[in-house]
């Protein structure tokens, strides 16, 4: 710490402060993240290990790591200073004036490259949001902040429960399913949507409304002037079932939008073209040794493969001894219904309307069909009242922050991109989705739902425990 001069405090996040610092020996400015370490011994080792490891990702679109050290109960991570700040600040500066398509596509393609890099190393970001994506003075996008979230997730003694950031969290997380590579894709979809509209796709005034919208994948369509490829991409990134979302590899190589993204990506950065039926071959292209090393470093946590094929190229390190082959899990064919079942019973929802009305809307452009009053799915699970009752008891700090549950705080749900908070709850049975049925053909990316974290964190359990303690 002594070798740095603190120039100023840039800001405060959920886990500590961000300081602008300068080494005493030179003039280059760096950001120093100061993270309060958990008091309990147990989590410290893995907190340090994970933060350092994940901060060491080297890629032009990932915030560069300089060093990390501990001092006085804090973990310090020194990283590249992105002088243009984060994307959320940048969007606010627009004062409602939309970004040009080429700016959106350039930034998004760089985000994809950063995400591709970490996914290739079998690492998940878990907290992708516009606040964690930065811009340099050269206009380059840098993904940041994945070290601290992971570090704190594994810090068992920490008196907070890490979930992610509610506004960016995918349906499977609400349903207590493991985080997987497609969960990062959902969050990336939220950021892309924000860049396109300067609004968040799932704005809400209450937990119930937010979760309902996320779990239904219900969002206001993108403006019609945007290329149809972006409409198509957003639609697929917001598929409620992770198996139907494209992987980062698919987005960059074979997705319809890749043609547009390629204009902003140099040849050597592009993933090599592969035929779709080769998930094993694709896995082989990942640097297996690095993936295993990363998993080993992650405190013996393993990263499981989750797909429909047997993957012989990446094994859970703990299974390597016995030479067992990790069998990929199957995603259920239907989206997970647990949360929706709960919400269906909540007071914002009245009885279902099963009629489907289709009508053309001249303002939405040719070929758009407005789907209204879509048939409600029939859920066959028992209603898990638990989630809703927990949420009712648990006030939350701002839902745009990395979510930590503070039992005594009672801040309202607030969306920073919202101009004003309208009560925009979706009326029962009405989907605000405009579908160009000819062009937006659904497809499955089941084959590239590649991996999930085995260190599944049951946040509902944690929440329940915390509530009991108070
Ligand atoms: N590498 C960086 N370069 C420039 N600014 C940064 C950098 N890292 C963080 N910041 C800024 O520092 C402030 C605090 O960031 P921090 O990551 O600690 O929390 P946060 O992202 O605001 O919140 P949360 O912890 O909920 O994600 C933010 O305004 C962020 O834009």
Structure description:
It is a single chain. This protein has helices at residues 44-55, 87-93, 101-120, 146-153, 171-174, 181-197, 207-216, 228-237, 248-253, 258-262, 279-285, 288-297, 317-320, 338-344, 385-393, 459-469; strands at 4-12, 16-23, 30-36, 65-71, 74-80, 133-135, 141-143, 303-305, 357-360, 368-372, 433-436, 451-453. The chain is of the alpha+beta class and 470 residues long. It has a domain at 1-80: 2-Layer Sandwich (Phosphorylase Kinase, domain 1). A 5-stranded antiparallel beta sheet has the order 1-2-3-5-4, covered by helices on one side. A 3-stranded antiparallel beta sheet has the order 9-10-11, with no helix packed on it. Helix 15 (385-393) packs across helix 16 (459-469). It is globular. It binds adenosine-5'-triphosphate. The site of adenosine-5'-triphosphate has 22 residues, from strand 1, strand 3 and strand 5.
Q: Radius of gyration, rounded?
A: 22 Å
How many helices does DSSP assign? 16
**What number is the mean pLDDT?**
66
User: Biggest sheet: strands side by side, in what order?
Assistant: 1-2-3-5-4
The low-pLDDT segments are 148-162, 274-329, 346-384, 395-399, 403-413, 420-447
CATH superfamily of the domain at 1-80: Phosphorylase Kinase, domain 1
**E-strand count:** 12
For the sheet with most strands, the description reads: 5 strands, antiparallel
Q: Give the helix level as a range of percent.
A: 25-40%
Terminal CA distance? 37 Å
Mind telling me which CATH architecture of the domain at 1-80 this is?
A: 2-Layer Sandwich
Q: Order of SSEs, N→C?
A: EEEHEEHHEEHHHHHHHHHEHHEEHEEH
Shape verdict? globular
Coarse structural class: alpha+beta
Family: Belongs to the protein kinase superfamily. NEK Ser/Thr protein kinase family. NIMA subfamily.
Pfam families: Pkinase (PF00069)
Cofactor: Mg(2+)
GO molecular function, one term: metal ion binding
């Amino acid at each position: 710490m002594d070798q740095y001069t603190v120039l100023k405090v840039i800001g405060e996040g959920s886990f500590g402060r961000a300081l602008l610092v300068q080494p005493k020996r030179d003039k280059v400015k760096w950001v120093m993240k100061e993270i309060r370490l958990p008091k309990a011994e147990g989590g410290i080792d893995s907190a340090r290990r994970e933060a350092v490891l994940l901060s060491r990702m080297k890629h032009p679109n990932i915030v560069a790591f300089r060093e990390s050290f501990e001092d006085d109960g804090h973990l310090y991570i020194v990283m590249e200073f992105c002088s243009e700040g984060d994307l959320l600040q940048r969007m606010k500066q627009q004062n409602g004036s939309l970004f040009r398509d080429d700016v959106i596509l350039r930034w998004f393609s760089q985000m994809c490259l950063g995400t591709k890099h970490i996914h290739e190393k079998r690492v998940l970001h878990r907290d992708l949001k516009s606040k964690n994506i930065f811009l340099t003075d050269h206009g380059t996008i840098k993904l940041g902040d994945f070290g601290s979230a992971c570090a704190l997730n594994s810090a068992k003694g920490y008196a907070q429960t890490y979930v992610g950031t509610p506004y960016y969290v995918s349906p499977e997380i609400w349903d207590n399913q493991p985080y997987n590579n497609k969960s990062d894709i959902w969050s990336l979809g939220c950021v892309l949507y924000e860049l396109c509209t300067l609004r968040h796709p799932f704005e809400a005034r209450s937990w119930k409304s937010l979760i309902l919208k996320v779990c239904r994948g219900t969002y206001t369509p993108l403006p019609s002037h945007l290329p149809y490829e972006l409409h198509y991409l957003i639609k697929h990134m917001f598929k409620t079932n992770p198996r139907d979302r494209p992987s980062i590899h698919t987005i960059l190589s074979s997705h319809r939008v890749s043609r547009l993204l390629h204009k902003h990506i140099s040849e050597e950065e592009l993933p090599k073209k592969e035929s779709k039926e080769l998930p094993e071959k694709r896995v082989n292209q990942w640097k297996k040794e690095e993936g295993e090393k990363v998993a080993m470093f992650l405190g013996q946590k393993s990263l499981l493969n989750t797909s429909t094929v047997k993957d012989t190229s990446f094994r859970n390190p703990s299974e390597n001894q016995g030479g067992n082959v990790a069998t990929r899990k199957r995603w259920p064919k239907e989206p997970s219904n647990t949360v929706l079942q709960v919400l269906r019973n909540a007071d914002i929802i009245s009885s279902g309307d099963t009629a489907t009305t289709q009508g053309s809307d001249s303002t939405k452009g040719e070929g758009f069909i407005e789907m209204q009053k879509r048939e409600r799915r029939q859920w066959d699970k028992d209603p898990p009242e638990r989630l809703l009752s927990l949420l009712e008891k648990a006030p939350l700090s701002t839902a745009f922050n990395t979510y930590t549950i503070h039992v005594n705080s009672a801040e309202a749900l607030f969306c920073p991109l919202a101009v004003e908070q309208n009560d925009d709850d979706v009326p029962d049975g009405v989907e605000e989705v405009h579908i160009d049925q000819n062009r937006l053909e659904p497809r499955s990316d089941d084959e590239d739902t590649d991996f999930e974290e085995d260190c599944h964190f049951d946040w509902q359990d944690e929440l329940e425990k915390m509530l009991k303690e108070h």
